[in-house]
Amino acid sequence: MHLRAEAILLSVRAHGEHGAVVRALTESDGLQPGYVRGGRSRALRPVLQPSNLILGEWRSRTEEQLASLTVELIHSHAPLFGEPLPAAALQWATALTAAALPDAQPYPRLYSALDGVLSAIEAAPAARGWSVALVRYELLLLAELGFGLDLGRCAATGRNDDLAFVSPKSGVAVSRVGAEGYERQLLRLPPFLIAGGAAEWDDIVDGLRLTGHFLQRDLLIGKGAEIVAARARLVDRLMRAVA
């Protein structure tokens, strides 16, 4: 196997005394793991930062063997890790993608969307500038992996107007009329997920609660405490920003 491609670096795990196992997302070949010799060295640590854009070259003798990987830095997001909220967003977006995606299956829409989220965080470190994109990315990830929500019709009436809630069981939208008397049992559907555009803080928080419920239920079961903690840090810091 020989692959040379630009990739978004998603995760880095120490391996042995000096090396690192890296997982990176390519546009055409999906998530690719690889072993970087000397990956824990002073020279490579700044390159092997999750969210960085790299040029990777993977080589292995068989498809089953973990490929050796050499990397060149194309673009670094390292300056953003000095700010707690952007850092939490970068860590969560990359950790989620690494945990959820299977190896070597192409997801070009996810690659493009993740690149857009990272660029939005870089362009506007204030959370109002990128949190809408992050919620939309989480929804896209659910859809690409077969757990998409149906936000186009009401589960109770079948109509497509005045949709304001989502069933936590079915993932189908519910209108105000259909939800009457059951509002407390449903998740709020923020308007920006239907109409697009910007969002108020309350809507952003509702969007994160919505996606968080289905991510936890459908994608993150058994993924370990670290990935759950990454999202908890992000939500906590967003809530502080709102307050």
Write the layout of secondary structure elements.
Layout: E1 2-15, E2 19-26, E3 30-36, E4 53-59, E5 68-75, H1 84-100, H2 108-123, H3 131-144, E6 163-166, E7 173-175, H4 176-179, E8 187-188, H5 192-195, H6 201-218, H7 225-242
Antiparallel strand pairs: 1-2, 1-4, 2-3, 4-5, 6-7, 6-8
Helix pairs in contact: 1-2, 1-7, 2-3, 3-6, 6-7
Helix content: 25-40%
Beta content: 15-25%
The tally of helices reads 7
Estimated structural class: alpha+beta
Distance between the termini: 51 Å
What gyration radius follows from the Cα positions, in whole Å? 19 Å
Mean model confidence by pLDDT: 93
Largest sheet, order of strands side by side?
3-2-1-4-5
**Number of distinct beta strands:** 8
